[in-house]
Amino acid sequence: MVAKTHGRAARIAIASGKGGTGKTTVSLNLAAMFGAPVQLADCDVEEPNLNLFLRCEQLTSTPVTMLIPEVDANRCTGCGACGELCQFRGIVSLGTRALVFPELCHGCGGCIRVCPSGAISENPHQIGTISVGQSRTIRLVEGRLEVGVSSVSPVIRAVHQQLRDDMPAILDAPPGTSCPVTATLLGADYVLLVTDPTPFGLHDLKLAVATARTLNLPCGVVINRAGEDQVGLYQYCQAEALPVLLSLPDDRQIAEITSRGDLVAHVLPEYGLMFTELADKLQQEVLKVAGGRA
Amino acid sequence: MKKIAFSTTGQTLGAELDPRFGRSIHFLIYDLELESTQLLDNQQSRNAAQGAGIQAAEIIVRAGADTLVTGHCGPKAFRVLDAAGIAVYNCAAPTVGEALIALRSGSLSPASSADVEGHW
Ligand code: SF4
Ligand code: SF4
Fold first, then answer.
1. Is the confidence at residue A208, as pLDDT, over 70?
2. Domain that holds residue B34
3. CATH number at residue B79
4. Structural domains of chain A in order of their starting residue, each with its CATH number
5. Is residue B110 part of a domain?
6. Is residue B22 part of a domain?
7. Which residues make Cβ contacts (< 8 Å) with residue A22, sequence separation at least 6?
8. Looking at chain B, which residue has its C-alpha nearest residue A92?
9. What pTM does this model have?
């Protein structure tokens, strides 16, 4: 059975310090070879792309809303207190009736509290959509941010809320190490970092490891395009006690198959086996963590 | 029309008119009655990750300008400027001086909306 932590099935985040390391390929193939029903969460809400591969036939969508201020023109005196408070420029008043910029508002509610005239009320505003679908053994939960909206993290949290507790989940994080990545990792029990043996790969891996460790999350590594290791990636992993759970060879077939929208684990049996093994190792890793906590 | 703000990369009337509004380096305010200039720094807006145009618009409004001449102005900045009653003129003149001449000769017409999508 699947390892459990905190009384719910394990959640594994797949992250990388930068884009283009093959993080999506790892998430999809791991989910396909998981050996049990699994959830796959697309937390790259600015550019969700997992369903291009999963092609779920039916998606059930729910809007994600945030409360943003609305100004009553008759009550606003143009005192400017709201704009002075808001560091995001979500609301601006320059001796004039306050103007709201929903795309910049973070929904903190601060302006409502400081308005001396009670001119501000709150209204729900759609900032994203969560879509849920099924593709074979994979339950997809996709977050998508509305165009122009800057509040990424609430949409990622909404993705987490749509996950079921009784089924393990793979969380595909956005690239980088910024707030949206942190928001993704905050819902995870384990972080799988995808990197490649290049100077950039190693540099960004170190940043990603630092992010994961700040959040007190155990991590393991997948090395993609593994070939000649000119940068000492393996030594680094060893020195940092980071288990390398999978090394994917630098094989052109992977890119070719992926660009067709197919999964290499489905097309080539040797890769199917690799990802099955990765799933097994991950379960052991997560069990270790769960055991350590118990 | 009394105080005109120009987006500029330099510090004088002979300097280049900065085609960007929100991320312009400076604003040169020209007082038509006094025929004097005042230079405002836009560093803070340029450093802002988001809402640079709104902040730049605030600087113009607080300086008491009633007119803005710039290359391009995005939708958020335009809303703030419009609410504050500032007339916006888009101008392709290479320098601030030439933009001022074009404005005075009446060959520019005020914009009724933003002329570009965000990030200016
Ligand atoms: S709710 Fe917060 S972020 Fe939004 S406009 Fe008001 S003060 Fe700014
Ligand atoms: S604080 Fe209230 S009254 Fe003052 S400008 Fe903002 S909305 Fe208007």
1. yes
2. 3-105
3. 3.30.420.130
4. 4-36+168-293 (3.40.50.300), 66-126 (3.30.70.20)
5. no
6. yes
7. A194, A196, A224, A225, A248, A254
8. B80
9. 0.78
User: What is the maximum span of chain A, computed from C-alpha positions, in angstroms?
Assistant: 70
Look at chain B and report how many structural domains it folds into: 1
Identify which of A88, A94, A104 has the shortest CB distance to residue B58. A94
In this predicted structure, the answer to whether residue A150 has a pLDDT above a threshold of 90 is no
Between CA A235 and CA A57 the distance in angstroms is 45
* pLDDT value of position A85: 95
As a whole number, the mean pLDDT across chain A is 92
Q: How far is the CA of A27 from the centre of ligand 2 (A)?
A: 48
Nearest-CA residue for ligand 2 atom 1 is A115
Q: Which residues of B touch A89 (CB under 8 A)?
A: 48, 50-51, 54-55, 76
Q: Ligand 2: does its nearest atom lie under 6 Å from the Cβ of A54? A: no
pLDDT digits (tens, 9 = 90+) for A171-206: 999 987 788 999 999 989 999 999 999 998 999 999
> Cβ of A94 and B84 within 8 Å?
yes
The stretch B27-49 carries a mean pLDDT of 92
CA distance A71 to A69: 7
CA separation for the pair B71, B89 (Å, rounded): 8
- Chain B contact probe: residue of A71, A76, A101, A105 with most B CBs at under 10 A: A101
A-chain residues near B76 (CB < 8 A):
89, 101, 103-104
**A99 CA to chain B: closest CA distance, Å?**
7
Q: Is B113 among the domain residues?
A: no
* Six-digit token string for A217: 């999350």
Nearest residue of A to residue B61, measured between CA atoms = A94
Arithmetic mean of pLDDT, A216-226: 94
Q: Is residue B114 part of a domain?
A: no
Spatial separation of the C-alpha atoms in residues A248 and A267, rounded to whole Å: 15
Specify the pLDDT at position A229.
Answer: 81
